[in-house]
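quick q for whoever's on today - can somebody do inverse folding on this one?? i tried earlier but teh output was garbage lol. tokens:
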């Protein structure tokens, strides 16, 4: 319940949640001579089931999908 309240708070959004991580990553990256930014293609799929009109308990599935390319930061020392 606490997580649900946190995630649905009107002053909270995804950007706010990851802002601390983003700031720390940028600070660590600035301290490195070489930084590799590698894109990580990721599919986000959200699905639900909804009653289908006129079919009683039959359900249809709805699906929303998006492709993201978030960068992942590596340094030469941390690649093995």
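ok took a stab at it. sequence:
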């Amino acid at each position: 319940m606490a997580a649900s309240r946190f995630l649905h708070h009107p002053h909270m959004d995804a950007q706010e949640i990851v802002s601390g991580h983003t700031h720390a990553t940028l600070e660590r990256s600035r301290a490195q001579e070489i930084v590799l930014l590698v894109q990580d293609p990721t599919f986000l799929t959200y699905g639900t089931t909804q009653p289908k009109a006129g079919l009683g308990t039959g359900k249809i599935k709805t699906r929303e999908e998006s492709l993201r390319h978030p960068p992942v930061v590596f340094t030469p020392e941390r690649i093995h």
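fwiw The first helix runs from residue 2 to 7. also Residues 49 and 55 are 14 Å apart (CA to CA). so keep that in mind when u check it
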